[in-house]
Design goal:
Elements: E1 5-9, H1 18-28, H2 35-40, E2 50-53, H3 67-79, E3 84-89, E4 104-105, E5 117-118, H4 125-128, E6 133-136, E7 150-155, H5 156-162, E8 172-176, E9 182-191, E10 206-207
Parallel strand pairs: 1-2, 1-3, 5-10, 7-9
Antiparallel strand pairs: 4-8, 6-9, 8-9
Length: 208
């Protein structure tokens, strides 16, 4: 039958020509195990038929435009192109070597030194990477916020750490922003665990 391809657009394309070499690195250079071990590992996502490209955000937008105004038209054009099943953007790619953590607070809980991993993504990213939704719903464009309070999707490890034995959908926690301002994060979905930076390490608590 007719084959379809999925496109996942990772961090803000230096050039389209770099996409294929980037994928070679993704398969061949980002993992510290043999290829046979890699293929047997459960990464929590499916890289089959996924094309990854690096995009330079500054080249796409006009002065004064914010992220969603730049990325949404591009994603909508890609998602409706022949042979494309879905498209999404993230701040960087899984296993790319970049990481980000946030200091968080949960009301009624003692302050913890532990900081979960964060990955900024667009609507369509989790579906494109085939990261299974276990509860709640996926991101929609109405969820996108450039700054301030926002909706988030968390993984299983996050729930086990911060809301053990509870249904986390609808729960709220806070990240510590500039000037120690608490920024609300409302959980709208839970996805299965995915490896983040190492195929050997357990999946860390992660917030999308």
């Amino acid at each position: 039958g007719k084959q379809t391809a999925k496109i996942g657009l990772f961090r803000p394309l230096v050039a389209v020509q770099t996409a294929f070499s980037f994928i070679v690195l993704f398969v061949g250079g980002l993992f510290l195990t043999s290829f046979s071990n890699l293929t047997r590992s459960d990464l929590g996502f499916d890289s089959n038929d996924v094309v990854i490209a690096s995009l330079e955000a500054n080249e796409l937008g006009r002065a004064g435009q914010k992220g969603p105004e730049v990325w949404r038209p591009l994603l909508e054009r890609l998602a409706t192109s022949p042979g494309i099943e879905s498209a999404g953007i993230s701040g960087w790619g899984l296993f790319e070597g970049s990481t980000s953590t946030q200091t968080l607070r949960v009301r009624g809980r003692a302050v913890e030194a532990f900081e979960p991993f964060y990955l900024s993504v667009s609507p369509g990213y989790l579906e494109t990477m085939r990261i299974e939704l276990l509860d709640g719903r996926q991101f929609e464009w109405r969820d996108v916020q450039v700054t301030g309070d926002s909706s988030v999707i968390v993984n299983e490890s996050f729930v086990q750490r911060y809301f053990p034995g509870e249904r986390a959908i609808g729960k709220r926690f806070f990240v510590v922003g500039p000037a120690n301002r608490l920024i609300a994060q409302d959980i709208i979905g839970i996805v299965r665990d995915t490896k983040y930076a190492s195929v050997r390490d357990p999946a860390p608590p992660t917030v999308f």
